[in-house]
Amino acid sequence: MASAIVKNIKAPVAEEMKIFEEKFRSSMDSKVPLLNRITHYIVKRKGKQMRPMFVFLSAKVCGGVTDSSYNAASLIELLHTATLVHDDVVDDANLRRGFFSINALWKNKIAVLVGDFLLSKGLLLSVENEEFEMLKLVSEAVKEMSEGELLQIEKARKLDITEEIYFDVIRQKTASLIAACCACGAKSADVDELTVLKMKKFGEKVGMAFQIKDDIFDYGTGDNIGKPTGIDIKERKMTLPLIYTMNKVDNATNKKIRKIIKKHNEDPVHVKYVIDQVISNGGLDYAHDQMMSYTKEALDIIEDFEDSDAKTALISLVKYTTERTK
Q1: Can you list the domains of the chain with their CATH numbers?
Q2: CB atoms within 10 A of CB 308
Q3: DSSP secondary-structure letter at 172?
Q4: Which of 51, 118, 128, 219 is the most exposed place for a label (fewest CB within 10 A)?
């Protein structure tokens, strides 16, 4: 069902996505056979490719896809893939999207070097094509992603994250890259700076809604939830449903939840207690309302643009973000 929805959303840029795949593959070419084997593996296990889709749909909404749009999509996918490869090393993760991670197959040293290679390829692609504005937009997003991750790690140690800090973390960690996709798409269509900023803001709102939805998934409500429940609690991540609950419960319950997250976050019985507290105290409902608020803001922004298949697809993409089941 989900793949059919994504296929419909992709329809206005289906041809562009095919061309992009070829360009993306060739952007990773190397004279080193080992590197080519690994990058071939990366291409083979690609996901839904939402980020390039955002670039091309944003470009079409703003006037049309150009050579610059392809460069932007490749740059974003190269840098994003580099961060994912490095993330798997940091997290000691053996799987990504159901496939073995690079570090699981080729060990950490090679995985880190492959991430560096992809990063350098993205930089070279920008410089060789003189896409300096694109490079600036995407580099700012990668910087924000790193800062967001580090801020989250710092706060996880003390469990002192406020709602305001949470929103700052997800804006940096998740929303900044989707914002860069939309801004780069608009920039590639050669529109004025105000329109670029408008599309950037649209992408940020979508990214915020996307991450809140992801955080709701961790509580395993509804059907066909895509990830195991309680993972965020086990990793001591203070997400919106939990922050809201801890602010609402009495002092004794708050202390008990803190103790579980600090000392018993691997114990399924204790983790279930926290999940039950979040659900019974309206943490998920509150998070859902915040998600829908960001969704509405995104839809309000895109509504100002001229009607087109690309605009309809972007609206569907926003709705899919909040209605998806995994």
Answers
A1: 2-323 (1.10.600.10)
A2: 13
A3: I
A4: 128
